[in-house]
Amino acid sequence: MAQYDLNLREYWRILGKRKWIVFFVTIFVGILSTAVAVLKAPPPIYTSVCSIKFEKEITVEGLYAKTITWSGGG
Predict the structure, then answer these.
(1) Cβ(40)–Cβ(33) under 8 Å?
(2) Whole-model pTM?
């Protein structure tokens, strides 16, 4: 029985010949695994809400005063 080694070029040729099968199996497995993950996901235990307030500083002096002020201690 003849035995030979497969090299990367031969693997690439096989993948090129079967590219549509590889593509559709990859898409199918991705969709199936996403569906299983969504359907089997446990309900959330905790919920949270976050709100961020942005204020625009108009003058450079006001920004400088906020940055440099400190307490003298006492």
Answers:
(1) no
(2) 0.49
